[in-house]
Amino acid sequence: MSKSILVTGGTKGIGKAIIQKFAAAGFDIFTCSRNEADLSALKKEIETLNPDIRVQVMAADLSKKKETKAFAAFVKKMAIPDVLVNNTGIFIPGSLHLEPEENFELTMHTNLFSAYYLSRAFTAEFMSRKSGHIFSIGSIAGLTAYANGGSYAVSKWAMLGFTKCLRQEMMPHGIKVTSVMPGATYTASWEGVDLPEERFMKATDVAEAVWSAYNLSPRSVVEEIVIRPQLGDI
Fold first, then answer.
1. pLDDT for 138-195, tens place per residue?
2. Residue ranges per domain, the chain?
3. Each residue of 61-118: pLDDT tens digit?
4. Chain-wide mean pLDDT for the chain?
Protein backbone atom coordinates (compact mmCIF):
# COMPACT_ATOMS: atom_id res chain seq x y z
CA MET A 1 0.00 0.00 0.00
CA SER A 2 1.43 3.37 -1.02
CA LYS A 3 2.29 6.00 1.55
CA SER A 4 0.62 9.39 1.61
CA ILE A 5 1.22 12.92 2.83
CA LEU A 6 -1.22 15.68 3.73
CA VAL A 7 0.06 19.22 3.17
CA THR A 8 -2.17 22.20 3.85
CA GLY A 9 -1.73 25.25 1.65
CA GLY A 10 0.00 23.16 -0.98
CA THR A 11 -0.36 25.18 -4.16
CA LYS A 12 2.51 27.62 -3.60
CA GLY A 13 5.86 28.15 -1.93
CA ILE A 14 7.04 25.77 0.78
CA GLY A 15 3.88 23.65 0.68
CA LYS A 16 4.21 23.03 -3.05
CA ALA A 17 7.93 22.26 -2.75
CA ILE A 18 7.20 19.64 -0.07
CA ILE A 19 4.50 18.09 -2.25
CA GLN A 20 6.87 17.93 -5.22
CA LYS A 21 9.55 16.24 -3.12
CA PHE A 22 7.30 13.59 -1.61
CA ALA A 23 5.39 12.97 -4.86
CA ALA A 24 8.69 12.23 -6.61
CA ALA A 25 9.30 9.61 -3.92
CA GLY A 26 5.98 7.91 -4.66
CA PHE A 27 3.72 9.39 -1.97
CA ASP A 28 0.05 9.99 -2.68
CA ILE A 29 -0.88 13.61 -1.99
CA PHE A 30 -3.70 15.30 -0.10
CA THR A 31 -3.82 19.07 -0.11
CA CYS A 32 -6.08 22.09 0.08
CA SER A 33 -6.16 25.81 -0.58
CA ARG A 34 -8.84 28.43 -1.03
CA ASN A 35 -8.37 28.64 -4.82
CA GLU A 36 -9.90 25.83 -6.88
CA ALA A 37 -8.07 26.86 -10.07
CA ASP A 38 -4.70 26.65 -8.31
CA LEU A 39 -5.60 23.23 -6.93
CA SER A 40 -6.61 21.92 -10.35
CA ALA A 41 -3.36 23.19 -11.86
CA LEU A 42 -1.32 21.59 -9.09
CA LYS A 43 -3.11 18.26 -9.42
CA LYS A 44 -2.49 18.19 -13.18
CA GLU A 45 1.17 19.17 -12.81
CA ILE A 46 2.02 16.66 -10.08
CA GLU A 47 0.13 13.73 -11.62
CA THR A 48 1.69 14.40 -15.04
CA LEU A 49 5.18 14.27 -13.56
CA ASN A 50 4.33 11.34 -11.28
CA PRO A 51 1.72 9.17 -13.07
CA ASP A 52 1.82 6.40 -10.46
CA ILE A 53 0.48 8.51 -7.60
CA ARG A 54 -2.86 10.09 -6.72
CA VAL A 55 -3.33 13.76 -5.91
CA GLN A 56 -6.53 14.52 -3.98
CA VAL A 57 -7.48 18.17 -3.58
CA MET A 58 -10.23 20.12 -1.87
CA ALA A 59 -10.95 23.84 -1.77
CA ALA A 60 -11.11 24.91 1.86
CA ASP A 61 -10.53 28.03 3.94
CA LEU A 62 -8.70 26.75 7.00
CA SER A 63 -9.27 29.97 8.92
CA LYS A 64 -12.72 28.47 9.47
CA LYS A 65 -13.12 25.57 11.89
CA LYS A 66 -15.97 24.03 9.92
CA GLU A 67 -13.98 23.91 6.69
CA THR A 68 -10.88 22.57 8.44
CA LYS A 69 -12.88 19.70 9.88
CA ALA A 70 -14.56 19.10 6.51
CA PHE A 71 -11.17 18.80 4.85
CA ALA A 72 -10.02 16.32 7.50
CA ALA A 73 -13.15 14.24 6.91
CA PHE A 74 -12.53 14.37 3.14
CA VAL A 75 -9.04 12.92 3.63
CA LYS A 76 -10.10 10.29 6.17
CA LYS A 77 -12.60 8.82 3.71
CA MET A 78 -9.61 7.75 1.59
CA ALA A 79 -6.64 7.28 3.91
CA ILE A 80 -4.87 8.11 7.13
CA PRO A 81 -1.74 9.87 5.89
CA ASP A 82 1.73 8.85 6.97
CA VAL A 83 2.84 12.48 7.14
CA LEU A 84 0.90 15.60 8.12
CA VAL A 85 2.35 19.02 7.30
CA ASN A 86 0.57 21.99 8.87
CA ASN A 87 1.68 24.63 6.39
CA THR A 88 -1.29 26.95 5.90
CA GLY A 89 -0.49 30.51 6.90
CA ILE A 90 -0.98 34.19 6.19
CA PHE A 91 1.18 37.22 6.90
CA ILE A 92 -0.38 40.63 7.49
CA PRO A 93 2.26 43.14 8.59
CA GLY A 94 1.38 45.53 11.38
CA SER A 95 1.95 46.39 15.01
CA LEU A 96 -0.04 44.81 17.82
CA HIS A 97 -1.15 48.13 19.26
CA LEU A 98 -2.37 49.58 15.95
CA GLU A 99 -3.48 46.73 13.69
CA PRO A 100 -7.22 46.07 13.27
CA GLU A 101 -8.43 43.54 15.82
CA GLU A 102 -9.71 41.35 12.98
CA ASN A 103 -6.11 40.82 11.81
CA PHE A 104 -5.24 39.08 15.07
CA GLU A 105 -8.29 36.86 14.94
CA LEU A 106 -7.83 35.92 11.26
CA THR A 107 -4.12 35.25 11.66
CA MET A 108 -4.50 33.08 14.75
CA HIS A 109 -7.34 31.08 13.21
CA THR A 110 -5.41 30.54 9.97
CA ASN A 111 -1.91 29.94 11.29
CA LEU A 112 -2.58 28.21 14.62
CA PHE A 113 -6.14 26.98 15.00
CA SER A 114 -6.04 25.15 11.66
CA ALA A 115 -3.00 23.16 12.85
CA TYR A 116 -4.72 22.43 16.16
CA TYR A 117 -7.93 21.08 14.61
CA LEU A 118 -6.23 19.18 11.81
CA SER A 119 -3.68 17.50 14.07
CA ARG A 120 -6.43 16.44 16.48
CA ALA A 121 -8.35 14.93 13.56
CA PHE A 122 -5.62 12.34 12.96
CA THR A 123 -3.85 11.74 16.27
CA ALA A 124 -6.17 8.95 17.41
CA GLU A 125 -5.44 6.95 14.24
CA PHE A 126 -1.72 7.74 14.46
CA MET A 127 -1.67 6.54 18.06
CA SER A 128 -3.54 3.35 17.21
CA ARG A 129 -1.18 2.68 14.32
CA LYS A 130 1.86 3.74 16.40
CA SER A 131 3.34 5.69 13.52
CA GLY A 132 3.09 9.03 11.79
CA HIS A 133 5.04 12.26 11.48
CA ILE A 134 3.56 15.71 12.07
CA PHE A 135 5.41 18.77 10.82
CA SER A 136 4.43 22.32 11.79
CA ILE A 137 5.73 25.01 9.48
CA GLY A 138 6.53 27.88 11.81
CA SER A 139 8.98 30.73 11.28
CA ILE A 140 12.03 32.34 12.80
CA ALA A 141 9.44 34.99 13.75
CA GLY A 142 8.48 32.46 16.42
CA LEU A 143 11.98 32.71 17.90
CA THR A 144 12.84 36.41 17.61
CA ALA A 145 10.46 39.30 18.21
CA TYR A 146 10.62 42.10 15.67
CA ALA A 147 8.78 45.32 14.97
CA ASN A 148 5.85 45.16 12.55
CA GLY A 149 5.56 41.41 13.01
CA GLY A 150 2.29 41.86 14.83
CA SER A 151 -0.15 38.99 14.93
CA TYR A 152 1.96 36.87 12.58
CA ALA A 153 4.85 36.72 15.03
CA VAL A 154 2.51 35.93 17.92
CA SER A 155 0.93 33.09 15.92
CA LYS A 156 4.33 31.59 15.17
CA TRP A 157 5.46 31.76 18.81
CA ALA A 158 2.20 29.98 19.66
CA MET A 159 2.77 27.42 16.89
CA LEU A 160 6.16 26.53 18.39
CA GLY A 161 4.58 26.04 21.82
CA PHE A 162 1.79 23.94 20.33
CA THR A 163 4.29 21.75 18.51
CA LYS A 164 6.48 21.28 21.60
CA CYS A 165 3.46 20.18 23.64
CA LEU A 166 2.26 17.84 20.91
CA ARG A 167 5.72 16.31 20.70
CA GLN A 168 5.60 15.39 24.40
CA GLU A 169 2.11 13.91 24.09
CA MET A 170 2.90 11.83 21.00
CA MET A 171 6.36 10.67 22.15
CA PRO A 172 5.21 7.45 23.91
CA HIS A 173 3.13 6.42 20.90
CA GLY A 174 5.87 6.29 18.27
CA ILE A 175 4.66 9.45 16.53
CA LYS A 176 7.23 12.04 15.53
CA VAL A 177 6.54 15.77 15.77
CA THR A 178 8.83 18.37 14.20
CA SER A 179 8.76 22.15 14.19
CA VAL A 180 10.19 23.74 11.04
CA MET A 181 11.20 27.39 11.39
CA PRO A 182 12.40 28.87 8.10
CA GLY A 183 13.77 32.34 7.60
CA ALA A 184 12.88 34.46 4.58
CA THR A 185 12.03 32.04 1.78
CA TYR A 186 11.41 33.17 -1.78
CA THR A 187 7.66 32.70 -2.16
CA ALA A 188 4.67 34.76 -3.28
CA SER A 189 4.63 36.45 0.14
CA TRP A 190 7.76 38.41 -0.84
CA GLU A 191 6.61 39.51 -4.29
CA GLY A 192 7.36 43.16 -4.92
CA VAL A 193 10.12 43.42 -2.33
CA ASP A 194 13.15 45.33 -3.61
CA LEU A 195 15.69 42.60 -2.83
CA PRO A 196 17.47 40.16 -5.14
CA GLU A 197 16.13 36.61 -5.23
CA GLU A 198 19.58 35.36 -4.19
CA ARG A 199 19.08 37.01 -0.78
CA PHE A 200 16.30 34.54 0.05
CA MET A 201 16.26 30.85 0.84
CA LYS A 202 14.82 28.40 -1.67
CA ALA A 203 11.52 26.70 -0.84
CA THR A 204 13.11 23.49 -2.13
CA ASP A 205 15.73 23.72 0.63
CA VAL A 206 12.98 23.65 3.25
CA ALA A 207 11.40 20.67 1.48
CA GLU A 208 14.76 18.86 1.51
CA ALA A 209 15.05 19.45 5.27
CA VAL A 210 11.57 18.05 5.86
CA TRP A 211 12.36 15.02 3.70
CA SER A 212 15.60 14.37 5.56
CA ALA A 213 13.92 14.64 8.97
CA TYR A 214 11.19 12.24 7.86
CA ASN A 215 13.71 9.63 6.75
CA LEU A 216 15.47 9.11 10.07
CA SER A 217 15.11 5.72 11.74
CA PRO A 218 12.27 5.20 14.25
CA ARG A 219 14.84 5.60 17.03
CA SER A 220 15.49 9.29 16.31
CA VAL A 221 13.51 12.47 15.73
CA VAL A 222 14.44 15.98 14.65
CA GLU A 223 12.45 18.12 17.06
CA GLU A 224 13.25 21.53 15.57
CA ILE A 225 14.61 22.69 12.22
CA VAL A 226 15.84 26.29 12.01
CA ILE A 227 16.92 27.44 8.55
CA ARG A 228 18.10 30.95 7.75
CA PRO A 229 19.40 32.69 4.64
CA GLN A 230 23.18 32.36 4.47
CA LEU A 231 23.56 36.16 4.78
CA GLY A 232 21.22 36.35 7.77
CA ASP A 233 17.64 37.36 8.42
CA ILE A 234 15.81 39.86 6.28
1. 999 999 988 888 999 999 999 999 999 999 999 999 999 999 999 988 777 676 677 8
2. 4-91+109-139+161-227
3. 999 999 999 999 999 999 999 999 999 999 998 999 999 999 999 999 999 999 999 9
4. 95
Report the pLDDT value the prediction gives residue 1, as an integer from 0 to 100: 65
More confident residue, 158 or 2: 158
- Sign of the CA dihedral 177, 180, 181, 187? negative
Superfamily of domain 4-91+109-139+161-227: NAD(P)-binding Rossmann-like Domain (3.40.50.720)
CA 131, 50, 16, 70 dihedral sign is negative
Alpha-carbon distance of 170 to 159, in angstroms, equals 16
Which own/partner pairs from 208-216 qualify as long-range (CB within 8 Å, at least 24 positions apart)? 208/21, 209/180, 210/18, 210/21, 210/85, 210/135, 210/178, 210/180, 211/18, 211/21, 211/22, 211/25, 213/133, 213/135, 213/178, 214/83, 214/133
